[in-house]
Amino acid sequence: MNYQHYSPEFKVKVVLQVLQGEKEIGELSQEYSINPNLIRKWKTEFLEKAYFTTVWEERKIFLAITIDHDSCFFVACPGKPC
To answer: Residues 66, 55: contact at Cβ < 8 Å?
Structure first.
């Protein structure tokens, strides 16, 4: 059986959409053809492993998300606190 491998960037993108309330797990599951339980698993792992830092750059606020000390993602925080 072939399993689809998803990049850390893709997983963070999907999880952040759930956490920010942009889309429900069911919507994302259909949109990306991913089992909803897999998205729930990513969300749980993200909340357990990620740590967050606020970063100021050129008068903009970003949320730096680091997972497993290997990957760092920056998420813009437009007009609202992170």
So the answer is: no
Q: Where are the domains of the chain?
A: 8-76
CA torsion through residues 55, 61, 7, 36, sign: positive
Give me 79's structure tokens.
């007009």
Q: Which residue has the tokens 């740590």?
A: 51
Q: For 16-62, how does the pLDDT look when each residue is reduced to its tens digit (9 = 90+)?
A: 899 888 899 999 999 999 999 999 998 888 887 766 665 556 665 55
Give the type of residue at 66.
T
pTM of the model as a whole: 0.67
Residue 77 has pLDDT above 60, yes or no: no
Sequence-distant (6+) residues with CB within 8 A of 7 are none
Radius of gyration of the chain (CA): 14
